Amino acid sequence: MFIIVPLLAFGYTYYQDSQLLKRHEVALKALGTEGLFLFSSLDTNHDLYLSPEEFKLVAEKLTGISPPADFEEEVTHDPNGETLTLEAKMQPLQLDTMTKSKDGFLGVTHSSLSGLRSWQSPAVPSMSFSASQFRAFLPPKNKGEVGDTWWVIQSELNIFTGYLPNNRYHPPAPRGKEVLIHSLLSMFHPRPFIKSRFAPQGTVACIRAASDFYLDIVFRIHAEFQLNDVPDFPFWFTPGQFTGNIILSRDSSHVRQFTLYVPNDRTLNVDMEWLYGATENSNMEVDIGYLPQMELQAAGPSTPSFIQDEEGNIIDSRGGGSDPIQFVFEDIHWASEISREEAGRRLEVTFYPFKKVSYLPFSEAFQRAQEESKLVHSILLWGALDDQSCSGRTLRETVLESSPVLALLNQSFVSSWSLVKELEDMQVSERARLHLENYNFPVEMMVALPNGTIVHHINANYFLDQTSMKPEEEAATFSFSGGFEDPSTATYINFLKEGLEKAKEHLAQ
To answer: Which GO terms describe its biological process (predicted)?
Structure first.
């Protein structure tokens, strides 16, 4: 019985994936490539069915009527409530990690990088917050279980909006929960845009642990900064992500712990784009680099500013002229919890549906492929595939998250993505060498045997050229949420299937 149950589960998953592939073939026949592309951009959960919620965007566009927005309670500050101090730390971007540093920034005007070069430290090293302000991180009423995820700040990008404009200097006024995120990021730089120009956009949170009185909430923010001011042209500084966690009471009267930071465990973690003109159609330069540190940390738990002694006298807890009062906090015992890694994975899947397929580290992927007798679906690129420093943005937001591609990858492949810089550092790896030999800038998709032999590969630029629509068709067609041309799901499936066939031929030799 212990053997039958896992086999049944595997069989059911295989059946579901097969049904998705069949549905895709039927939909492609009925709608054509362009029609299926539009349908898929509305089908947010990629089940090849449109729910009323998914159809809402079309209804609003056609009728011109939007349903009333959910009421968002304004956070009120309790003057007698607890406060905490956040401290900002930052090490500036290492300019020598930028690609354009290799030729001495040839052709890059001094004014373009003026905002970047002058940004050496946090705008506000320390700031006091009311504990009640962090109510913005509390889950909605229908999200109370450990592992639940929700949008703190909902993405506003969809098939009708496309990208947000590049030629801006100052962010829009924040509203509701946006106010707290804006205040936090303003400690680093005075011009944070808490809704990034490109997907993914917004803030997502997940309950990592819960007790009767406390919640441990992990969150992830996608936002960016505008570093230049007039008369210089806009310079966008986009960290791969901001992540962190907060431990707070369920009524937000007390914050035990807070941290927010840009992960620095990859060789490159910031995308930069700057304009050479004042219009949206001006030429734009793009680069990527490494930021060693950008972090907010609570100096300690939140505490009341004033307390009463046994006789009812009001005492300033900060001590005034005497020593400040020392508070003792009870230990927290979690009734249920998941690991930080699992909470992070759930945040990733919420932002990136393509992560429904596991993307393993390079060496681990080949080991797993050997164990499971599968091929490796490998993507080699300039910036991380799963954050804002990505050079494979088009792929992840289109074909890689489509249901038929997800189904085929789950059935027949072990997937992995790697940075070029990381493979260059793996000098003794034969598999890494074979990948680099077949790599072309900026993104190369490959199908490899478990021993590292590349049996099929295609460059992202060539792939997009092959699947893009003719100019006369482009204007009449809706674009995907990121505004990309139609990179056909069918073409990517054919690429994967060709890889499977080429692998058979190679092994038969």
So the answer is: calcium ion homeostasis; skeletal muscle fiber development
Q: What is the pTM of this model?
A: 0.74
State how far the Cα of 461 lies from the Cα of 455, in Å rounded to an integer.
19
The 8-class DSSP code of residue 472 comes to: H
Total Cβ atoms within 10 A of residue 502: 16
Q: Give, rounded to a whole angstrom, the gap between the first and last alpha carbons of the chain.
A: 41
Give, for all 509 residues of the chain, the pLDDT tens digit. 444 544 444 555 566 667 777 777 787 778 776 566 567 656 766 677 777 766 766 665 555 454 544 445 555 666 678 999 999 999 999 999 998 888 888 888 888 999 999 999 999 999 999 999 999 999 999 999 999 999 999 988 765 666 788 888 999 999 999 999 999 999 999 999 999 998 888 999 999 999 999 999 999 999 999 999 888 999 999 999 999 999 999 999 999 999 999 999 988 899 999 988 767 677 888 899 999 999 999 999 999 876 665 666 666 655 555 566 777 788 999 999 999 999 999 999 998 888 889 999 999 999 999 999 999 999 999 878 887 655 567 788 778 888 889 999 999 999 999 988 889 988 678 999 999 999 998 899 999 999 999 999 999 888 888 776 444 444 333 333 333 334 468 889 999 999 999 999 887 77
Q: Spell out the residues 6+ positions from residue 466 whose beta carbon is closer than 8 angstroms to its own.
A: 491
Residue 428 per-residue DSSP state: T
Alpha helices (H) along 301-387: 340-351, 362-372
Rounded CA Rg of the chain: 25
Q: How many CA atoms lie within 13 A of 366 on its CB side?
A: 17
Element (H, E) at 90: strand 82-91
Amino acid at 151: W
The residue length of the chain stands at 509
Output DSSP code: residue 307. Answer: E
